[in-house]
Amino acid sequence: MKKLMNKPEDFSRETIEGIILAHPECLKMVDNNFRCVVRADERKPGKVAIATGGGSGHLPTFLGYVGYGLADGVTVGNVFASPSAEAMYEVDKAIDNGAGVLHLYGRYGGDLMNFGMAADLASMDDIRVEEVLVTDDVASAPKGEEDKRRGVAGLFYAYKTAGAAAEKMYSLDEVKRIAQKTVDNTRTMGVALSSCTVPEAGKPTFTISDDEMEIGMGIHGEPGIERTKLKTNDEVVEIMLNKIIEDLPFEEGAEVSVLVNGLGATPLEELYIAYRKVYEILDGKGIKIYRNYIGEFATSMEMAGMSLTLLKLDDELKEMLDFKAYSPFFKQDQK
Amino acid sequence: MKKLMNKPEDFSRETIEGIILAHPECLKMVDNNFRCVVRADERKPGKVAIATGGGSGHLPTFLGYVGYGLADGVTVGNVFASPSAEAMYEVDKAIDNGAGVLHLYGRYGGDLMNFGMAADLASMDDIRVEEVLVTDDVASAPKGEEDKRRGVAGLFYAYKTAGAAAEKMYSLDEVKRIAQKTVDNTRTMGVALSSCTVPEAGKPTFTISDDEMEIGMGIHGEPGIERTKLKTNDEVVEIMLNKIIEDLPFEEGAEVSVLVNGLGATPLEELYIAYRKVYEILDGKGIKIYRNYIGEFATSMEMAGMSLTLLKLDDELKEMLDFKAYSPFFKQDQK
């Protein structure tokens, strides 16, 4: 796969420069440092702040979810590489409104270590920091070890619900509780058809034959649970959705939100073909779709493939999901 | 490139079924025919209706621009194939509010013929039909023969401005005038890095070496103006933008809207790297960016590449561009 880029080492900086030039009314850097990006709109004193971050290459994750009803700041790493603890600490200081900061991010080794160090630094400044790890990827660890799983497209739901709670001026403990409840009720499975290319590597992260796909592959190319001959869209959806459904489990009578996410190179047409089958299967099991999201929400550069995510809803999570949200990358009116 | 699909011949139907299941509050079929999709919200008697259509495989073009402040109905062909005149005529009948219909679409042979026949059929029902062809692709015919050019991502601007005028209850003549003025002031250039695969063909539409790109290629793989070694993002932007600027021409003091469009497989990161250079070049020439759009607006399945579009604005076009628009695929608040 060929890339439209300049020097590989400038990839993340130039991306952020483009974003800030395009959306100055929404986003700004902290101290001219492209690694630290925060909301540019008016601050609300006493509002809990939400910080996120991680490697680049997943737009709209993570930076795309900095906005009203979502997160307040993001730390930007190089492609697929964790940003530094110092940069995370700078974001914490920049976004704290006196009510504390929730670190909300996907469970990856480098990010875990660096967000931990940033929390220590912030606490020395008397900024209270709590943490919720998103761990929605069913393929990354077996049932019973949910807390060892990676975070993938389900991150979106955690931003959406926790962001709404923060905007409603809930306390840090309450925002954390809602984020954790969201994670506990979110399950994702992905499938990859082709590799992506990290700019600094200059070649595909992994190889996969023209007639193969890998079910359960992670968004950085982490091994999945099965490499198999190419199946139909319907077959892929059935395999992935059944694994998701039995994992939580999602049962008859449940109300869910469905997220059909493109990993980068998969046409929107194919995501809707998948949604058609998701709808049919859930309908057959008596599981009701309350709200759907279909498009690119967490990508892996130009990887071909998709992921399916279900979030099991109760009245509180519905209220948070229905809350208005606004960023340059995601817009939703209040229901 | 591998596809997530079922039977190739079901690709367009299954796509539309998924879309209607996902967005029943916004879109519906006419007489259960997936080839004819119209707005599902309340009709405004006396409002000019806008019909569009063309082959599938370009989402969000065309169907994604059926909504408030945009078009009213779309006719859906197979991938890269024109829909029939009969289906277009069914859409005309379904959306006419008594004020006439504007056929607004990209200039391609099959669509020209079929929309023409549909207009004849509609006129026999006393539905007044006018037509505006979008012809923004600078690479597809030389200066002086602008009316022979193809329509590409600039379609978006024609929907946006004509759709706003229709929503403001302008007459058919006025909606047509605004659509034509938009087309007259819109210029696009694209670059392709890889081919797409049409489902029914099952193999890439064209071949291109791993170290090559084609500047000016059309969104169905039509030949461009130059096949060249892979250049940097900055170089590609400079070549394409200069051709656009000199074509209209866009001159110092002009106000423009910029659209940086991904063709399918190009990461959003790379589109923002391009926007950074667009901004620098326009700023250097004293051309002011009034509003930007960055993302996937007109795709070519999973083609890697992008297009740049400029629209030269006056006060009237700014007013139309700032008007609220809403579809499942495109949301913009009133400025």
Automatic annotation (TrEMBL), chains A, B:
Q: What GO MF annotations does this protein's record show? A: kinase activity
DhaK domain ranges (all copies): 7-330
Q: Which PROSITE patterns does the record associate with it?
A: DHAK (PS51481)
Q: Which Gene3D superfamilies match?
A: Dihydroxyacetone kinase, domain 1, Dihydroxyacetone kinase, domain 2
- Output the InterPro entries linked to this UniProt entry: DhaK_dom, Dihydroxyacetone_Kinase
State the superkingdom: Bacteria
Annotated keywords: Kinase, Transferase
By what name is this protein known? Dihydroxyacetone kinase subunit DhaK
| Organism per entry | Clostridium neuense
